[in-house]
Amino acid sequence: MSDAQENLTARNVLVYSSSLADIDFGPGHPFKPARARQMMELLPRYSLLDEKNQLVMEPSPLPDEALFAFHEKKYIEILKHAERGEFTMEMLEAGLGTEDCPVFPGLWEYSAGASGGTYQGALMLADGAARAVFNPLGGFHHAGAGHAEGFCYINDLAVAITELVRRGLRVAYIDIDVHFGNGVRDAFAARDDVLCISIHESGMTIYPWAGFVEDIGEGKGEGYTVNIPLLQGSDDEVFCHAFDSIVPPLIEAFRPDITVALIGADTHREDFLGHLNLTSIGYERTVRTIVRISPKLLVAGGGGYNVFKTAALWTLAWAALCDIEPSDAYAGLIGGMMYGPEAQSGSLRDDPYVVSGNLKDRCFEFARDTVAYLKRNVFPLHGIG
Ligand SMILES: [Zn+2]
Hints:
alpha/beta; eight-stranded parallel β-sheet; 13 helices; 40% helix; 10% strand; binds zinc ion
C-alpha cells in the first residue's frame, strides 16, 4: 500500500450540511436537526477538526436505486405527494401526517439529504476511502420499508446496510439509542450476514414497545438479532455491564467487515424522552468500545432530545472516532466564564451519577438476567462457549 492510500484509509469523515440542520420539524416537535449545528460549534472549540486525516463533507441526496433497494416505491410516492400538500387516506396508513411524523416543507429534502449522507459514507467505507464516517443528521432506525414511524421517514441505516450486503460484506449493526431499533431489526431479522444488536430501555416502558430479549431473529437469521433491554432508571454501571458482557464477544465471533452504529444520545439522564440515567461517562466509554472492536465504522446520530447534551455527547463521539482527546481552546484564557452553547450546561463531560438502593438492585438484576439469557441462547449459535 502506498503512503497516499494509507492516508486515504485513515481518513475520518464528518458528513454535515448547515442547510439541512436549519430544517425545522415544526414548533413543539422534539426532533431538532439543530443539534448537529451545536455540535459543529463545539468541535473547533475543543480542537477536534485540526487533524490532517479529517474531512468534512456535504451530503448529496440519496440516489433512487439505493432508496428503492430497501423502500417500497408506493410509500415514497405517498411521501413525496404528502410534502406537496396532497393529503390522502393512504398517507395516514403509511404513518405520515401524525404527531410523530408530521408532513412539513423541507421534509423530502431533509430525508433524502440526511439519508444520502449515510449512504455516501457506506460507499466510502466499502471502497476503502475512509476508516470512519459520522453523519449526525442521519440515523432513522424506526422507519419501515413501507411506512414512517417514530420521527423516521427514510431508514438511512437499512438503505446503507442493504448496499453493503449487496456487495457481499458482513455488517454488524450496533444501536445504543434509548429506543429499540425496530426498523433495522425488521429489515434484516431473517439474515445471517447482518448481526443486529440493539441495547435500549425496555419496551415495557417506552416506544416502540418491542425489542425484548427473547426476539433473536427468524429462520437462518436466528441468533443474528440481539436485543439487550434495560430497566428504566439504569445508569452507566448497569448499561456498561450489559454492553461489555454481550457486544464485544459477539462482534469478535461474527467478524464484520463494517460496523454500522447508531449513537442516539437519548440514553442521557437529562434527555426529555428516555428514562435511563446515563452520563457522558458511560456513553463515551461505550462509543470508544465500539470504535475499538470495529474494523471500519459508519456512525449515524439518531435520537437525542436534550439539544445541548446531544451536541456534547456527539462531540465526544467524534473525538472517540478520531482517537483524539478534546482540548478546550479557551481553557485558562477566560477564567470561569463560559462561551457559546456551553453557557447552558457547563462542560462537555458530566460528573459521575450513580443510582443506588432498591432501584439500582432491580436494574442490575434485570440486566444480569438479560445477559444470562443471551449467553445461554445466542452465544452458542456463534460458537462462543
Ligand atoms: Zn431514540
